[in-house]
Amino acid sequence: MGARGEVPNARIAGLALLRPAAATIVLLLQRVAARDREAFCALYTATSAKLYGIILRISRRRDIAEEVLQEVYVQIWERADHYDASKGSPITWMVAIARNRALDEARRKKAVSIEDTPEVLGIADEADHPLERVEKSQQLLRLSQCLDGLDGDRREVVLLAYRDGMSREALGQRFSRPPATIKSWLRRSLLQLRDCLGQ
């Protein structure tokens, strides 16, 4: 059978990537350890739904689960050469990474969004009493000092997002980063600002 016989085999190979056996995942991890990007994409496609489900059960927030999933795959990319098939199945190894990363995130301080801390970027009302204006100007000075403590790009991202109202997608294009990275920057920057303002 010529080329016709090859089409079903190609389909079977494609289906194997959709639901790979442990041996297939081991091979993918070996290729990822050799920095094979196609293997990494196939590994992500085959395993991300399972890992996302585990992370979501622990974090109970989709936005955090998405961020943690991204960090998990960065760790898998960086540590694929540490996987030892003699110590367990590849999915067990990956689940352990996802679970540990999700638990670490859950142990951290409560996630902060701008809705949780609107005072961080509050703007003085012109109808305030003069003493209130002085107090607010001191708060704005502290905020400015705390903003100066952020890395240059992150400071600019916070100002563009919350002062100028730029979306994560627009910020991602401007800084050549995916929206999930921008979201992570904003979240961590707000945590840093909150800690700085609380001192």
How many strands? 0
Biggest β-sheet description: none
CATH homologous superfamily placement of the largest domain = RNA polymerase sigma factor, region 2, helix turn helix motif
Number of H- or I-type helical stretches? 9
Rg over CA atoms: 23 Å
Strand % is under 5%
Instruction: List low-confidence stretches.
Output: 1-19
The third-level CATH topology of the largest domain is Rna Polymerase Sigma Factor, Chain: A
Dominant shape: elongated
Integer average pLDDT? 78
Helical content class: over 70%
Classified by CATH, the class of the largest domain is Mainly Alpha
- Counting helices, strands and paired strands, the structural category is mainly alpha
The arrangement of helices and strands along the chain is HHHHHHHHH
CATH architecture of the largest domain: Orthogonal Bundle
Termini separation comes to 75 Å
The number of domains is 2
Short description:
The protein is mainly α and 199 residues long.
Structural summary, described in words:
This protein folds into two domains: 97 residues, RNA polymerase sigma factor, region 2, helix turn helix motif (Rna Polymerase Sigma Factor, Chain: A), CATH 1.10.1740.10; 81 residues, Arc Repressor Mutant, subunit A (Orthogonal Bundle). The termini are far apart. Helix content is 73%, strand content 0%. The chain is built from nine helices and no strands. It is elongated. By secondary structure, it is mostly helical.
